Amino acid sequence: MAVTADSTIMDLIHEKPEAAQVLFKFGMGCLGCAVARGETVREAAMAHGIPLQELLDALGIQEK
After folding, report:
1. pLDDT tens digits along 45-60
2. Which pLDDT tens digit goes with each residue over 2-19?
3. In terms of C-beta density within 10 A (0-12 exposed, 13-18 middle, 19 or more buried), how is residue 62 classed?
4. Which of 9, 40, 49, 64 is surrounded by the most beta carbons within 10 Å?
């Protein structure tokens, strides 16, 4: 499965477990919460005020 900005946080962590550390560095500490199960990487970036491209670059994933 290709992980993109429209993948959920849970899908991201499932496919790339090392992404958890990147998310923590951006202040996203609630990786196991109910919201993370349905929230996309794109939505999480917006909710946390993080520039999407900066987050995607750090995670090593594409927008689409």
Report:
1. 999 999 999 999 999 9
2. 899 999 999 999 999 999
3. exposed
4. 9
Domain contains 3? no
- Residue 64 inside a domain? The answer is no
Integer CA distances (angstroms), 4 to 1, 28, 41, 63, in order: 9, 17, 8, 5
**CA 33/CA 15 separation, integer angstroms:** 18
Q: What share of the chain is helix, strand, coil (3-state, %, to 5)?
A: 55, 5, 40
Is residue 34, in this structure, part of any structural domain at all? Answer: yes
Would 49 be classed as within a structural domain? yes
Q: How many domains does the chain have?
A: 1
The 10 Å Cβ neighbour count of residue 6 is 12
